[in-house]
C-alpha cells in the first residue's frame, strides 16, 4: 500500500474514504423489498418505510404533560450566565457530527464567547417561560445496519443525532437536579455520578471483600503479588492487601516446627507447606536479619530460601493429629514435627510454596486407606 496516497491533511473522513477505496471495502448497505417481492425498493421508498417503522415504535408511549411540576428546595431556578455557557461550548468535541439545524461544531467552539451571550438569554427565557424550543427537539435519525447484507427492518439500529445546543441546555437541568439529590445518593453508587468511574467501583468492591473476609482470628492466604527484586534471602515487601479465604471442610494442613536463626538470636517458628502457592512467604515479625537459614528441629541440614515478607500469612486450625495417630496403624511410630496440645488455632510464620517445597520434602510418603491422613517426610520432620 502506498502510504503517500493517503495524505489527506488531517481530514479523518477523507482518510477513511481512501482506505476503504484501497481495500475495496464498502459501507454496509440496506436492501429492503416489499413483502412478498424480491425487487429492491427505491431509496425514497426505503426511507419512508424505515421512518414509518421507527415512528410506529412510539405509538404506545404516553403523551408528555405540558404542565410543569416543582421539585427541589426552591421554585426559582438559578440564572444561566454567559461565562458558564462559554465554558460548556469550549468543551464540545468538534469532531463529532452536529445535530439538525446546528452550525458546524468547529464554528461553535471557535466563536464560543460570541455565542455564549445570546444562548444564555435563550436558556433563561426558556426556563422562565417553561417552554423548550421546538427546533431543538428535532433530531436526525441515521439507520445503521446491524448485519451485512441488511434485508429486514429488525436488522437496523436507529442512531439519533440531536441538537448540540439542546444538550447544553439539558446539562444545566442535570446539574441543578444533582445538587438537590447529591446528599441522598448512596455512597456506594458510582454510575452517573460526577468524578466517579467503574475503576472506583471495583476498588470499593475489593475493599469490601477484603474487610469481610479478613479473618483476623482465623487466617488465610494472600491472593495477588507484584514481584520486586529483593536482596539476601528475603525479597522486598510487596504492596498488595491481604485477602483471606477459608473453607468449612476440615482439612489437615502440612505444618511443621523449626528453628529460625538470625544474625544474633533464634526463634521457634511454624512452617506450612503449600503446593498451591507459587511463592514462599515469611512474616515481618520474624524477619530480623538478611540471612534466614531454616534448620531442622533435630539439628540436621539447613535450607536457605527466598521469601516475600508480609504482615500475616495464615492462622490454621489445630486438628491434633498427634493425639489421634494411634487410630491409624500406618501413622504409628512416626514423629510429627508440629505438636501443639495447648492451642486450637496457631499462626503460620513461614509458608513454603512450590518454588522451594521440594527442598524440604524427601519424597517418602506413607499412605493408609482412602480418606485417612497421609504423612509426608520433610527435613523438619513428618507432616500430615
TrEMBL record:
Q: Which Gene3D superfamilies match?
A: Acid Proteases
Q: Identify the domain of life.
A: Eukaryota
Q: Which InterPro entries match?
A: Peptidase_aspartic_dom_sf
Q: Supply the name of the protein.
A: Uncharacterized protein
Source organism (scientific name): Paramuricea clavata
Lineage per the UniProt record: Eukaryota, Metazoa, Cnidaria, Anthozoa, Octocorallia
Amino acid at each position: 500500500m502506498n502510504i503517500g496516497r493517503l495524505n489527506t491533511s488531517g481530514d479523518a473522513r477523507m482518510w477513511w474514504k481512501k482506505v476503504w477505496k484501497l481495500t475495496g471495502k464498502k459501507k454496509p448497505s440496506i436492501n429492503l423489498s416489499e413483502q412478498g417481492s424480491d425487487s429492491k425498493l427505491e431509496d425514497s421508498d426505503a426511507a419512508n418505510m424505515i421512518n414509518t417503522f421507527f415512528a410506529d415504535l412510539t405509538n404506545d408511549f404516553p403523551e408528555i404533560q405540558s404542565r410543569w411540576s416543582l421539585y427541589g428546595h426552591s421554585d426559582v431556578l438559578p440564572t444561566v450566565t454567559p461565562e458558564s455557557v462559554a465554558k460548556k461550548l469550549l468543551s464540545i468535541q468538534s469532531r463529532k457530527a452536529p445535530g439538525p439545524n446546528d452550525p458546524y461544531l468547529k464554528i461553535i467552539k471557535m466563536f464560543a464567547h460570541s455565542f455564549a451571550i445570546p444562548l444564555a438569554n435563550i436558556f433563561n427565557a426558556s426556563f422562565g417561560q417553561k417552554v423548550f424550543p421546538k427546533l431543538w427537539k428535532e433530531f436526525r435519525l441515521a439507520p445503521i445496519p446491524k448485519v451485512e447484507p441488511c434485508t429486514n427492518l429488525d436488522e437496523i439500529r436507529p442512531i439519533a443525532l440531536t441538537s448540540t445546543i439542546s444538550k447544553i441546555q439539558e446539562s444545566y437541568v442535570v446539574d441543578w437536579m444533582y445538587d438537590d439529590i447529591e446528599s441522598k445518593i448512596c455512597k456506594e453508587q458510582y454510575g452517573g455520578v460526577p468524578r466517579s468511574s467503574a475503576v472506583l467501583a471495583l476498588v470499593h468492591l475489593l475493599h469490601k471483600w477484603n474487610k469481610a473476609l479478613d479473618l483476623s482470628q482465623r487466617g488465610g492466604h494472600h491472593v495477588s503479588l507484584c514481584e520486586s527484586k529483593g536482596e539476601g534471602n528475603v525479597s522486598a515487601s510487596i504492596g498488595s492487601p491481604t485477602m483471606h479465604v477459608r473453607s468449612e471442610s476440615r482439612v489437615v494442613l502440612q505444618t511443621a516446627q523449626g528453628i529460625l536463626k538470625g544474625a544474633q538470636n533464634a526463634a521457634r517458628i511454624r512452617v506450612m507447606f503449600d503446593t498451591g502457592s507459587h511463592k514462599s512467604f515469611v512474616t515481618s515479625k520474624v524477619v530480623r536479619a538478611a540471612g534466614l537459614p531454616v534448620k531442622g528441629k533435630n539439628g540436621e541440614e539447613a535450607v536457605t530460601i527466598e521469601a516475600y515478607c508480609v504482615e500475616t500469612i495464615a492462622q490454621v486450625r489445630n486438628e491434633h493429629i498427634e493425639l489421634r495417630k494411634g487410630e491409624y496403624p500406618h501413622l504409628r511410630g512416626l514423629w510429627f514435627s508440629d505438636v501443639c496440645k495447648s492451642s486450637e488455632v496457631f499462626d503460620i510464620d513461614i509458608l513454603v510454596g512450590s518454588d522451594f517445597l521440594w527442598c524440604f520434602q524427601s519424597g517418602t510418603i506413607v499412605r493408609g486407606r482412602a480418606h485417612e491422613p497421609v504423612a509426608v517426610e520433610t527435613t523438619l520432620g513428618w507432616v500430615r
